[in-house]
């Protein structure tokens, strides 16, 4: 055998001897070792795509909206604000007239009742004038007008009688009553105007606000409640303010109408009392000469 053949045989014997040693270390019947399970790969989270920019003119839906009365007023446009300011001013005028006119009617009724009581208790026109000398009001004017007319007609009373005097006194007293009634009714016409027009002014503001709300919905291209509700709420605020201004004006006007009617009735009683005093004075003026003639 050659040298190369001996070297190959030696290498083969060494390999066989190593394999047998390995087989002796592993116990008989043992199962072959299993490979460790490999954990599943977790996919990496996807990077969110950047949001597309909102179109021009679009309304942001998720922003909070102040729905308090002041917030809705500040969010309204110039026309709706002008309507609300006008209605608030009308309401202020209503309550100002109520306060001033209530005090005026109360004082006028009190003076008229005192004058009517004094005229009813007096026996002559001169006595009534003395009782009302330091008081004011239309009652004093009634008595003074009767006294003036009597003084102006005194020279003709003995010739033509007192029928003409009664007519002239009645005419002057009626004019004084009418002037006092007009004076007491000043300001109530404003209440009537506010009570009749304020609801329609508020309705105009509501229509204008709802129109703007629908324009905003069309621009946003959505019917989301967050878009619809604020505009409609602002519009309805104008109607609410119109009712707030109109309802007290109507109620106060009706109360004043009844009070002024009662004031006129008291003046009518005082005027009737003055006419009775004038008629009584004329009777005594006629009776005195007749008594003197009878005594002769």
Strand composition percent: under 5%
Cα-to-Cα separation, first versus last residue: 210 Å
How many strand units? 0
Q: Into which percent range does the helicity of residues fall?
A: over 70%
How many domains comprise the coordinates?
1
Please give the count of helices. Answer: 8
**Sheet with the most strands, sense and barrel status:** none
General description of the model:
The chain has one domain (69-295). The chain is built from 8 helices and no strands. It has helices spanning 3-25, 69-75, 78-121, 125-131, 138-160, 163-185, 188-220, 225-295.
Topology:
Elements: H1 3-25, H2 69-75, H3 78-121, H4 125-131, H5 138-160, H6 163-185, H7 188-220, H8 225-295
Question: Which descriptors would you attach to this protein?
Answer:
single chain, 296 residues, mainly alpha, 8 helices, rod-shaped
In short:
With 296 residues, the protein is an all-alpha fold.
